[in-house]
Amino acid sequence: MKPVSILFCSLILIIGSCRNGHQYDIATDKYENTKESLAQTEQKNPARFLSVEGNNKKNLLGQMVIRGKVSNNAKVVAYKDIDIKLSFYSKTGTLLEEDHETVYETVHPGASSNFKSKYFAPKGSDSVALHIAGAKY
Taking a C-beta distance cutoff of 8 angstroms, is the pair 128, 56 a contact? Predict the structure, then answer.
């Protein structure tokens, strides 16, 4: 009876020690590939993951003062040198002029950055629309 129990215990130890160690490696590799794929998607489409909002007013010199905030909704990529397209509109909604402003800061995933710009806007300007034109990573 003793040899059978020793054999049985040995079999249990052998089976228990033969775990598949590759499952952790496969899961880690899959996670890394997904992370790389997400990073590539975020790098190719900065306008999809960045948003900008702001307001404007005129100062005593007649300049249009634009205060805004750029937010990064990406999960992996930090963006820098963010290019913002400014569209100046009249009271009737007619596009008068377009210009670009670059925010020279790094905005990390989930973070925001404030900016302020002053422009001598075209005559008759009433409002400004802000759009993300591009960014570096």
Answer: yes
